[in-house]
Amino acid sequence: MYKNLAAVIAAACFLSPVFSKSPAPVATPEPLKIGFVYVAPLLETGWVRQHDEGRRAVEAALGDRVKTTYVENVAEGPDAERVIRDLAATGHKLIFTPSFGYMEPTLKVAQAFPQLKFESITGYKTAPNVAAANARYYEGRYLAGIAAGRMTRSNLAGYVAGFPIPEVLQGINAFALGMRSVNPASQVKVVWLNAWFDPTRERDAAMTLFNQSVDVMAFHTGSSAVMVAAQERGKLAVGYHSDMRKIAPDAQIVAVTHQWGHYYTERAQALLDGRWKSGNVWGGVREGMIKVDGFGSKVPKAVQQEVLARQKDMAAGKLHPFHANQAVLDNAGKEVIAKGQTLSDAQILQMNWLVQGVQGQLP
Predict the structure, then answer these.
(1) Where would I find the H helices in 183-272?
(2) Which one of 83, 128, 162, 170 counts the least CB within 10 Å of its CB?
(3) How many other β-carbons are positioned within 10 Å of the β-carbon of residue 89?
(4) What is the 3-state secondary structure (H, E, C) of 12-79?
């Protein structure tokens, strides 16, 4: 009897759902939280738009493995440090800070959060948990200068510039060298704003230059105001950061566009894989970070083909904007690149002169 009872109990235990073992639930890993800090409002085109396109590329490539957020229109300085610190304190493991003036605030916050990773975009200082990256914008400027040199009728271009830092000087000088490589008589007039984003003053500066016989415009600021001004005045301009033909369909001759998606995605993937390392990247046409395209309807096919051919030469290492076939002088007459020489990266990064053909002095 006891034997049979024991058998019944054993069978009941085997069949009863109370004693059955269900599979353990599989834990879903938390997505990697990535923060972006933007120095100006997020608009349809411009500097911030291109970085936000990069953020979107990260989401598209990595899906639910990541969760991105951004804060726009953050002034450089104390505001930037506060926003970066807030992102660090709210679970963001990777933070991109794309503006030169964010470099020091990024380093300061990174020191307080050594377990997090930071990417100082356009900065040059690094730390164990801070990488730096920038693009060789000057390469696109040189190519755009070729187009401008072919298209100008007054032989006078304008340039609305933010701050006189090396990155901006590289662009102005490369643009002038590109123009003068096909049109030696051309000149460039610069207006300094000491601001990255001020649409009203950007527009006013462009209008002032147009009133001084300028018929082709370039700019290194954050909005599309210069392009809008060129469209209104029936003049020509080079789009910067983004393709701006929607805003200035008749004015744009070409655009120098910045492509951040691949870099941002690779850095996020590296952190997910546990292989993120600090470093300093400076990529250009060859790496796909800079591209010249978006030719306007007024640009002859021959000019388009010439610019695209030079872009291929640049990607192949056959063309360098700061190589001197003849001695290059600054606008005070001093030799800055000897005949047959090419500036090193260190020399380019420390640029503090304006090339011959650029009117005016550094502020």
Answers:
(1) 199-210, 225-233, 261-272
(2) 128
(3) 12
(4) HHHHCCCCCCCCCCCCCCCCEEEEEECCCCCCCCCHHHHHHHHHHHHHHHHHHHEEEEEECCCCCCHH
Cα 285 to the center of its chain, rounded Å: 13
> Alpha carbon of 2 to those of 11, 12, 15: distances in Å?
14, 15, 20
Question: What's the pLDDT tens digit per position in 61-116?
Answer: 999 999 999 999 999 999 999 999 999 999 999 999 999 999 999 999 999 999 99
Q: What tens digit of pLDDT does each residue of 238-283 get?
A: 999 999 999 999 999 999 999 999 999 999 999 999 999 999 999 9
- The angle formed by the CA atoms of residues 145, 149 and 150, to the nearest 5 degrees, is 120
Check pLDDT > 90 for residue 13. Answer: no
How far apart (Å, rounded) are the C-alpha atoms in residues 290 and 135?
7
Sign of CA dihedral 112, 118, 119, 121: negative
Q: Give yes or no for a contact between 189 and 212, defined as CB atoms under 8 angstroms apart.
A: yes
* Max CA separation in the chain (angstroms): 115
Average pLDDT, the chain: 93
Minimal CA–CA distance to 174: which of 227, 132, 135, 206?
135
Question: Is it the case that residue 193 has pLDDT exceeding 80?
Answer: yes
The span from the CA of 139 to the CA of 132, in Å, is: 19
Task: Judge residue 329's burial from the number of C-beta atoms within 10 Å of its C-beta, 0-12 exposed, 13-18 middle, 19 or more buried.
Answer: middle
End-to-end Cα spacing for the chain: 106
**In 62-151, at which residue ranges do the beta strands (DSSP E only) sit?**
66-71, 94-98, 117-121, 130-135
For residue 304, pLDDT beyond 60? yes
Long-range own/partner contacts, residues 225-232 (CB < 8 A, 24 or more apart): 225/199, 225/200, 226/160, 226/202, 227/251, 227/252, 228/203, 229/203, 230/206
